[in-house]
Amino acid sequence: MRLLLALAFSLGSAATAAAGDYASEISAYRRANGLSVVRADGRLVAVALKQAQAMAASGTITHSVGGQFSSRVAPLRKSRAAENIGAGFLAFSEMLKEWKASRGHRENLLMPGARRVGVASVANPKSPYRKFWAMVITD
Fold first, then answer.
1. Which pLDDT score is estimated for 3?
2. Do residues 72 and 64 touch, judged by C-beta distance below 8 A?
3. With contact defined as beta carbons under 8 Å apart, do 7 and 69 qualify?
4. Which of 17, 37, 25 is nearest to 115 (CA)?
5. d(CA 96, CA 104)
6. Residue 19's pLDDT is what?
7. Are 91 and 21 in contact, with CB atoms under 8 Å apart?
8. What is the block-wise mean pLDDT of the chain (139 residues), using blocks of 10 residues?
9. From CA 30, how far away is CA 106, in angstroms rounded?
């Protein structure tokens, strides 16, 4: 069972290695589309992780389970932020492929002026989705 949701919102160690790998994959996609690269940002990883944990704990895929997106990213003080979430894919490459195929997710991945990204996943073997993903991208 696989499910994806996308949200864009405009505002006025191993994990670190994985974050860098995720940023590299997203950057390659952005470069192929004539856009700038993004760098992994620990603060964005923390926001994404909190959302992935909330979804895994509840077994649901929704942007609001970890709190409203606008509230979750407000402390970052960014003028633009977007979030992709999804579940049911064990590897990031699979999740990214699905996000690329979805108009809303693709728009978030290709947000003009984006500079930073955070990606996190949390497993829940009891859920039919098995793994929950969240990505936050900002200017």
1. 47
2. no
3. yes
4. 37
5. 13
6. 67
7. no
8. 44 50 97 98 97 97 95 95 98 97 98 98 96 98
9. 10
Per-residue b or e along 107-131, where b marks 16 or more CB atoms closer than 10 Å to that residue's CB: ebbbbeebebbbbbbbebeebebeb
Instruction: Locate 102 and state its tokens.
Output: 């979805």
Retrieve residue 107's tokens.
């728009």
CA dist list (Å): 28 to 22, 46, 89, 116? 10, 23, 20, 14
pTM: 0.88
Distances (CA, A) of 30 to 43, 88, 100, 111: 21, 24, 11, 9
Task: Report DSSP letters for 74-123, one per residue.
Answer: GGG--SEEEEEEEES-SSHHHHHHHHHHSHHHHHHHT-TT--EEEEEEEE
* HSE, side-chain direction, 13 A CA sphere, residue 68: 4
**Of 110, 68, 87, 67, whose CA–CA distance to 5 is shortest?**
87
Cβ atoms of 88 and 20 closer than 8 Å: no
